[in-house]
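for the record, two folds in this file. i put them one after another cuz i was lazy. first one right below, seq on top, structure tokens after. the second one comes after a little note so u can tell where it starts
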Amino acid sequence: MDEHTIGVLTNIGLFAFIALSAYLLLITGEMSFAQQAFFGVGAYAGGICTALLGWPLPLALVVAMAAGALAQWLVARPTLRLRGLYFALASLAAAEMFRILFEVFRVRVSIDGELVGPDGTQGFRGIRWVFEHGIEPFEFMLLVWALLAVVMALFGWMERSRLGAVMRAIGDDRDLAGAVGIDVDRIKLFVAAAAGALAAAGGALFAHVNTYIEPRNFDIMLGVHSLAYALIGGLGTVFGPLLGVLLDIGVLESSRALGPFRMVVFGGLVAVLLIFRPRGLLDEQLVRRIVRRGGNAR
């Protein structure tokens, strides 16, 4: 497998984490434009753990997920009762707040005579744990996809559990869910923390495969794409966001001949798709038909 293919597959796996975090919020009825911020929190936290503190990557990943969960919980707590456009705008404001914090965040430590650490707008260089431990790009790609497979298996279990049914009930009608005894606020805070942890896990892995990150890596366009992944792929199954990432990155990678117009063309395709399939390609109706046919075939 050539380096370009490995790079594309690794990126698909990495961005699937942020797509799944947006999907998790969407199925509870919330559209967040802030997932790129928690992707960034994970990137910075994971990078600090390995590059500055010398911790192993698995521990750095756990710390990054905890930081992402806490960050999104803190954002969700005061915005808990906002709905629709108000919640979306609040999430966008929070994301910009985090991006500005990344631009002023400086923690420089001398390691082997070289200054390492976040340096505001100059970015964070020297996140070299993967390369210092001899992990090849193909091996890192397998690691990303192995972790993604675990996450998707957990999603599959969740969607068949009572928790999954409760989350979709909240997404369908928050007031009705509360009226039948569901603790809507508690569930939403749990979902927010889980979404933050997922985005942060992808961010930590992103930082280590790139070795360098900067605040503009986590701008509003990444947030828009994270929503697009879930909305394009569909909200009927956990495979929807992954399909959205495959279509997004696949279209972008295969349309370079269009030059500066490729994002315009891609945006137009997304708009047309959402007009005719507002719940995405793998929406709930299609998933039910597939499951029904599978059951009949047996």
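(here's the note) second protein begins now
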Amino acid sequence: MRTDCALNIVLIGMPGAGKSTVGVLLAKRLGYHFIDTDLLIQTGEQARLQQIIAERGLEAFKRVEERVLGSLKTGHSVIATGGSAVYSEPAMRHLAELGRLVFIDVPLAELKKRVDDMDTRGLALDPGEDFSHLFARRRPLYQKWAGITVEGTNMNPGQIAATIETMVCSDSRPE
């Protein structure tokens, strides 16, 4: 296990940015645990994300997500958040206290190629909102919260994980 890195590394970004894929690879590289907050939500609620949104509504989903993110207590973990995590100021403050926030930045055109399951993915879309609107609304929030931004195009997930390791472990704040 690397001991010269942040206590935790929190990945943020749009659906399709590769947070879960990169997160698993990064956790293996560092000898850290891997936590996917979307899976925590699904397990805790015993429902898929899309089910929660369809049956309870978007605001109820956001409250569940905020509660799950705000209750995280972990160390030596790579945490892949859902794309909508940035809507909750309290949750993001908590995640920032847990470790380094890393934004995997992928351009809209590339994300649209990667995300082909929008109807079943559990996207937190407002009524009438499409993926382009979602991108325009969220990107400034990712940029606001990011301690580190990694360009997520022109590299495969392993290369992105290696880049994050180099940036976080060489630029780690004292824990």
